[in-house]
Amino acid sequence: MSLFTRLVLCTIIFAGIATRSQASIISYLALLDGPSESPPNASPGTGTANVDYDDAAHTLHVHVVFAGLLGNTTASHIHSATAVPGVGTAGVATTTPTFAGFPLGVTAGVYDNTLNMTLTSSWNPSYITANGGSPGTAEAALALGLAQDRAYLNVHSNLFPGGEIRGFLQPVPEPGSLSLLGLSALALRRRR
Hints:
alpha+beta, 3-stranded antiparallel sheet
């Protein structure tokens, strides 16, 4: 491994440690499509899901934009945790049968809501039971699923009851971490 690669990796690790120790809001992004479903489908539908988890306020802000579905929406929620990161299926973690206020019976829409993770109404009751029996233990399990790339957001439709579009929620690097990485790379290039 080259010196440059080692220094870049160290910078990423230290920036992540410093950022995570101070941050209370962790942002995740998922690109939603049919080929990401399990099993994959040929839906032309697409979307994005932005999820901000605030571990201090115990909230989950969910913003979803989707369009081009073949079927009409019937539900949407977050599933967690798959056995293997980035693949497979898992049970529903959040509100069932769907997020409160999610646009149903449409092929395109926008959803924006904040869930209070301390309330049982924000959870699938079976997820709470399977993960310690309280909203607090369910929150810890979902936070771990998100951090381990084992949670995904799914939009279900009448033509695809198992899910028409989905995407695994990936952490979004903080601007400060990206700036630090860029400065490190620039400094190393100048040394050569």
